[in-house]
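seq:
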Amino acid sequence: MIVGIDPGYSGAVAVYDPENNRVVEAEPIPTFEIKKGKSVKTELNEHKLVALFRDLKARDPNIVGVIEDVHAMTGQGVTSMFNFGGVFRAIRIAMVAAGIPYHLVQPAVWKKSLACPADKDGALMRASQLMPDAVDEWTPKRGHRTKEVCKGVAEAAMIALYGARKILT
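struct:
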């Protein structure tokens, strides 16, 4: 199995089975919503993240992770970059804690390899073309997953597919 990870609060984790050419599991990065006064702040649920990776490792001792190697982008605020970097580092630490070896891949590399447009809407379209059996994983459902989370799920599935095609071969 390959676990693909699109980091960030609206990112996701997707597990791809290369033998059967299908996504077997996908879910958003686990978070909490904490009310602070009149605003709501999103925080990473590190305990659930580690538990998720440990469960995956227990189900498949040979599982390999592929994490999108992201960096700060021009125009992002300082707080946003700090939080994003924290989630990225926590994902890597959770993988280590679970005993899952991982690879980092630049967004431009996996997207070029899979002929995926740079924007997240394009990733939804391309993921649907390459993995039609998994379309329900990134289709928004009322009260279930937001469109942003669905985009993260599609990208995580594509990252896992890239790992199966390029890293395992």
